């Protein structure tokens, strides 16, 4: 009974050892993969860093520092830091030369941009955080060392006991599990503590193997585990990546040699021969790979050049909006990852290949940055224009004569649509504010009450317009203009600017008649404006308001033109076909035409003002 109990415990313990060995093998595989991933990561960081603009380094560094494995990013951070320092020194020298060339004294030169301070603040925080991490790790490892020494002493006490039973084995197993789960110890003590532990574990197993039944059971389990290792080795020949196959094979050999015990004598030669056969097959594949390495590297070179061409095409595709840029950024990131993942290329082509890769990624980033810089400039202008319109409506609402601004409010609504688009985080808030105050104005205008006299005036105005529509109207420019002057004199006796909306209907009717007359378009716009002046010329307030409005429009257009012309400096000579540049040039042409028309209207208005002034002096 006692032997059966020990046997069951040993079976359980051997099963757990097998699991532990599998985990160790997986750790070895992971270690190899980590080395490859580390090399690829470093190459990737080097490539990314060389293609970044200086202003982008802090954000890129911040991503590394917020990585889940931030403590393992030390090499990558050093690569990035070296790239930044090299680029910044070049930029610093460039700025210094510009300063001196403009007549500055070298001793007075100072250049410390915000991105530099931000970058080195992040480096400083990283070093502090890393020091704290290693202090805590050192304390923890020291505690682990103390505990592992205690565990070894307890194992020694188990071995030195005069009597052993099933409980002895159970206690040993508990101590063994605790040893593995305790964690790392200081590196200087690692080998010593492991060798000491291993020595006393072997002493314990020697004690067990004095029992013949347990020894045979150990042989059987070792045989089964070695069969599994052989089967894994035989499957390695199916792997397409020879580097992975060799790495896995080395791990299997290490497991076979160091972690598995002997098998029955009659099985040893058979197992070793089968294992060597699988090993030989992998090495033959390795030799064949080495023979073909030149053609493989050349193929890798062609694949990488193809990816460079794809990135280049994306850079040259004249992307004109945010969504398309985001899609392009995602595509380029995927292409860059593929580029890094592809294997080695011929050594004599490697330098030129990397230069080409850096050049196309740098060009792409430059185009991307130019696009978003220009977007920000245009957005800032749009925000300013929208804010001015909001302030103008608010001022009108606070004006005692707010009722006379109905037409201006409607013009403001049209201008709002032409101010350009802004990002979502601003547009919803500003539109909500603008809609609220304009609705407030129209609600206020709609609900104002009219007295009896005002109602009579509106009725007379309607009657005047209805009668006008029934008259026979001359459709030659001079006669029609004389007709308008005559009717404007009648209208001046019944008009009231504070009520109704009839003058708008009247002017619309007359302007439609102007459209029926054969006259050049540029003259047509002026004639229509003259018509408006005939009907408001006797109202000094309206004339003055109109004069202020036109001058304000000229000023706004002039400011916008200045801003757009300044924006042209952000475009390089090579960006002639850039959609944003084309849009800016079209806008400049449009604004110049508007400005010319408004100046013509101002000339007409000044003529009316001068005439009014003469009549005042005459009176």
Give an overview in words.
The protein is an all-alpha fold and 619 residues long. Among the domains are: 1-50 and 211-284, no CATH class; 295-375. It has 20 helices and no strands. The termini are far apart. The model is unreliable at 1-42 and 615-619 (pLDDT under 50).
Average pLDDT rating = 78
- Contiguous uncertain segments of 5+ residues: 1-42, 615-619
The total count of helices amounts to 20
What portion of the residues fall into strands of 2 or more residues?
Answer: under 5%
Q: What structural category do the secondary elements indicate?
A: mainly alpha
Rough shape?
elongated
Radius of gyration computed on alpha carbons: 43 Å
Write the topology of this structure:
Elements: H1 2-51, H2 57-65, H3 74-101, H4 114-159, H5 166-181, H6 187-209, H7 212-235, H8 242-258, H9 265-291, H10 293-315, H11 322-341, H12 347-397, H13 406-417, H14 424-446, H15 452-470, H16 477-494, H17 502-515, H18 521-536, H19 540-567, H20 579-618
């Amino acid at each position: 009974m006692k032997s059966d109990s020990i046997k069951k415990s040993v079976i359980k313990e051997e099963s757990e050892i097998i699991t532990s060995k599998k985990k160790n093998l997986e750790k070895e595989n992971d270690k190899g993969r980590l080395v490859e991933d580390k090399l690829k990561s470093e190459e990737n960081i080097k490539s990314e860093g060389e293609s970044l603009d200086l202003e982008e380094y802090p954000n890129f560094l911040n991503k590394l520092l917020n990585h889940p494995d931030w403590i393992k990013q030390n090499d990558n951070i050093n690569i990035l830091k070296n790239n930044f320092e090299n680029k910044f020194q070049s930029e610093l020298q460039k700025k210094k030369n510009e300063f001196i060339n403009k007549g500055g004294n070298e001793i007075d030169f100072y250049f410390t941009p915000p991105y530099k301070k931000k970058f080195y603040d992040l480096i400083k925080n990283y070093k502090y955080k890393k020091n704290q991490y290693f202090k805590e790790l050192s304390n923890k490892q020291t505690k682990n060392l103390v505990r592992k020494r205690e565990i070894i002493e307890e194992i020694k006490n188990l071995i030195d006991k005069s009597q052993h039973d099933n409980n002895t084995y159970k206690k040993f197993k508990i101590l063994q599990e605790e040893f593995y789960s305790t964690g790392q110890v200081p590196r200087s003590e690692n080998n010593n503590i492991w060798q000491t532990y291993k020595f006393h574990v072997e002493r314990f197993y020697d004690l067990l193997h004095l029992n013949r039944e347990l020894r045979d059971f150990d042989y059987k389990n070792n045989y089964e585990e070695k069969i599994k290792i052989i089967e894994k080795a035989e499957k390695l020949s199916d792997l397409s990546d020879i580097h992975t196959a060799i790495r896995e094979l080395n791990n299997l050999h290490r497991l076979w040699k160091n972690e598995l015990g002997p098998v029955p004598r009659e099985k040893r030669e058979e197992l070793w021969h089968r294992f060597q056969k699988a090993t030989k097959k992998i090495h033959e594949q390795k030799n064949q790979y080495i023979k073909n390495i030149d053609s493989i590297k050349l193929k890798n070179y062609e694949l990488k050049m193809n990816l460079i061409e794809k990135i280049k095409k994306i850079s040259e595709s004249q992307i004109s909006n945010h969504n398309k840029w985001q899609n392009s950024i995602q595509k380029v990131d995927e292409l860059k990852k593929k580029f890094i993942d592809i294997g080695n290329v011929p050594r004599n082509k490697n330098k030129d290949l990397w230069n080409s890769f850096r050049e196309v990624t740098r060009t792409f980033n430059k185009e991307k940055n130019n696009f978003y810089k220009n977007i920000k400039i245009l957005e800032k202008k749009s925000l300013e224009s929208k804010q001015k319109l909001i302030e103008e409506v608010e001022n009108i609402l606070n004006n005692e004569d707010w009722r006379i601004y109905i037409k201006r409010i409607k013009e403001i609504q049209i201008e709002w649509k032409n101010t350009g688009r802004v990002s979502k985080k601003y547009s919803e808030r500003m539109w909500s504010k603008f809609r609220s105050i304009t609705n407030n104005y129209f609600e206020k205008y709609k609900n104002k009450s009219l007295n009896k006299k005002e109602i009579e005036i509106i009725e007379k105005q309607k009657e005047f317009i209805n009668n006008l529509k029934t008259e026979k109207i001359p459709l030659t420019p001079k006669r029609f203009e004389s007709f308008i002057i005559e009717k404007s004199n009648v209208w001046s006796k019944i008009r009231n600017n504070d009520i109704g909306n009839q003058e708008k209907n009247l002017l619309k009717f007359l302007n439609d008649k102007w459209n029926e007359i054969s006259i050049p378009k540029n003259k047509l716009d002026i004639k229509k404006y003259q018509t408006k002046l005939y009907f408001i010329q006797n109202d000094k307030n309206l004339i003055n308001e109109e004069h202020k409005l036109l001058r304000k429009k000229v000023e706004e257009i002039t400011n916008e033109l200045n801003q757009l012309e300044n924006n042209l400096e952000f475009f390089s000579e090579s960006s002639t076909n850039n959609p944003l540049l084309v849009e800016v040039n079209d806008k400049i042409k449009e604004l110049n035409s508007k400005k010319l028309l408004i100046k013509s209207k101002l000339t007409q208005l000044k003529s009316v003002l001068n005439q009014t002034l003469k009549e005042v002096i005459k009176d």
